[in-house]
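Q: What does the assembled structure look like for these inputs?
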Amino acid sequence: MINSALRYGLSLILLFTAMATQAQLTVVIERGQETAIPVAVVPFGWQSAQPAPFDIAKVVAADLQNSGQFDPLPREDMIDRPTQAKDIRFQDWRALKTDYVIIGSVIPEAGGRFRAEFGAYNVLTGQMLVQQQVTTDTAGWRKAAHAISDVVYQTLTGVRGVFSTRIAYVKVEGTVPKQNYTLIVADYDGENVSNIAKSSEPIMSPAWSPDAQSLAYVSFENRVSAIFVQTLRTGERRQVSARAGINGAPAWSPDGKTLALTLSRKDGDVDVYTLQLATQLLTRMSFDPGIDTEPVWSVDGRKLYFSSDRAGSPQIYEIDIDQPEKATRVTFEGTYNARPRLSPDGKRLATVHLDQGNFRIAISDTTTRSLQVLTQGRQDESPSFAPNGAMLIYATQERGRGVLANVSADGRIGGRIPDAGGDVREPVWAPFVTK
Amino acid sequence: MSWRYVAGAILLHVVFMGVFALTLVSIGREAPPPQLAIQAMLVDQSTLKRPNPREQRARERAEAQRKQEQQRKEEEKQREQQKQREELERQQTERRTEEQRQLEAKQREDQQREQQQREQQEQSQREAKAKREAEVEAERKRVAEIERKQAEREAEQRKVAEKRAQETRESELRQQLEVEEGQQRMAQSGVTDKYRALIEAHIYRYWNRPPSARPGIECALTITQAPGGVVLTVNIGACNGDAVMRQSIENAVLRASPLPLPPDPRAFERVVILQFKPRD
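A:
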C-alpha cells in the first residue's frame, strides 16, 4: 500500500515538476514609440433634425490636438457616428487604427439648459474608461466642452488637463510715437478675448495671482512706471508701488500675500525686493551693483530665483528669503539665461537662453542642472508654464510682429496660438482656478 | 687759201639755214594769237546756241572756284563758331570743376570733424568699458571660486555614486553569468534568441510609450497565443506603472497581434511573458 501511495505521490511530484519546467518565453521590451495617440471624437448626438446649437465634439477634438499628445481623426474619415455605447462597433474603429473613441449626446432640459452625456472607450479592449455628464446653458457651452476635454485628457494620460485655464498677454497697436497698449485675458486657446486695461502708455509684465482672480502689472500711464493690482471680476484696481525710479517685474508669492518686484529707487541700482501687500513692508533681496531683476518664487515660497548680470551677462541666481545676501548661481550652460520661470512642481526652470546667436526657450532641471533648448525661433521670449507643467506658452516673432506659441515641456511638439492681432507679447498662463 | 675754211663756212651756213628753216616752220604752225585786254570775237549766230566747250569749262571753273570760296568762308565761320562754343564749354567745365573741388573740400572738412567727434566718443566709451570690465573680472573670479568648490563637491558625490554603481554592476554580472550558463544548456538557445528578438522588434513598434513610462518602471504582461501567433489572453502581472502605462502595454500587445512566428517551429511557445522596462 505504501508502495502505491509513494508511487502515486512521486508521479504527482513529477507531474508538477514537469509542469513547472514547461518552457515560458520571456521577452524584454525597453523601447517604444512616442507618437500622438490616435483618437476619434465623434460628433455628439442631438435630438431634432436641425443642427445642434453648438458643436462640442469640435472643441474637444481641438483641445486634445492642442495638447500635442493626441491625433484626432478627421470627421470625413469616420465610418459611422455612434452616439450611444451600444452602437459602437469596435472592429470598425480598429480598422481605422484608432485607439480611443469618444462619443456623446446633447439633451435639452428644462429652463433652456442642456445636458451633455459623454464617454470614452478603449477600441482594442472594448473597455469603457469614463462615462460622465455636464450641464450648461447656451452661454456656457464652450466652458462645458473644455470641462469634457479635461476629463477625457486626465483619463487617458493621468495628467490634469489645462483646457479650462486662461492666459493673459499685452497687445500693442499703432506705430511710434502713437501706440496703444491693451492687457488682454483669453481662454488658453486664444478664444474669448476680453480687455482688462487699455493705455496709450506702455503696459508690461503681467502676473497672475495664485488664485487666478487678479493680475499685477506695470503701467506707465502716469508717465513713470508703477505697479498695479487689478481684480478681474470687479475691475477694481489699486496701485501698490510707485517709488522713484523703476517699478517692474511683479511676481506673486505662493500664498498671494507678498509681491517680489524690481526697484531702482533713488540710487539707480536695479535690485529685487519683496513687498508685503497688506503692510507695504519693503525688504531688499539683492545687493549687487549690477542689474538684478525678474524675480520668481519657489514652490514653497522660501526662495527666490532672479536674473543677474553680476557675472558679466545674465544668469539665474537663487537666494533664501531669510538669507538674501548669499546668492547661488544655478545656470551654467550658455552665456545668457534670463527671465526665469519655475514649473509648477518646482523641478524645472524655463529661461530665455542664447543659443547660437538666437534667443530661445530652454528648460533646466533644478537638480541635475542639465539644459535642453525647446524652441527654434530667432527671438523667443517670455516663457510661462501651463499649470499642469506639460506645456509652455511663449512669445515669438512671425513676419515682423509678435505672436504667441506653445511647446510641450519635452520640446517634442508645438504650435501657434491665435491672438487678437497687433503686436502681441509677454504671455502668462494662469494657474488652476480650483486647486 | 685753205679749202678747209671754205668748207667749214658753207657747213656753218647750211646748219644755220636749216635751223632757221625749222624755226620758221614751227613758228608758222603754232603762232599764238596776240593777247588783247578785251577779247572780242565776231561770233556767228549759229554758234551761239552751241555752248563753247572752252567757255563752258571756264564758267564751270569760275563757278567751282566761287563755290569753293564760299565753302571755305562757311567752314571758316563754322570753325569760328565751334571755337567759341568750345571756349564756352571749357569755361563752364572749369567752373563746375571748381565748384566740385570746393564741395569735396568742404565734405572732407565735415568728415574730419565727424571723425574727430567719433574718436572722442569711442575714447570715452572705451574708458567706461575698461572700468566695467575690471568690475566684471572681479565678479568672475568670485564665481569661478564658487564653481570650483561646487565642482569639487560634485566630484565627491560622483565618486560615491560610481562606487555604488560598480557594486551593483558586479552583482548583476554574477547573476547574468548564471543565467547565461543556464541558457547555454538549452539545446535550441540560438533559435530562441532569434525568436525573442523577432517578438521585441515587432511589439515595440506598436507600443505608444506614455510620458509616465520612465526608467525604473517595470511591468510584466503574460500572454497566450494560438499556433498562428494570434494573441488569445492578456494578463498584467507585477507592474509599478500607473493606469496609463498599463493601458498602453495592453493596447500595444493587442494591436501587435498576430505575433511573428519563429523561423524554427520547434521554438514556438504558447505562453510569452513580456517585460516592459522602458529605458531612455
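The first helix of chain A runs from residue 2 to 20.
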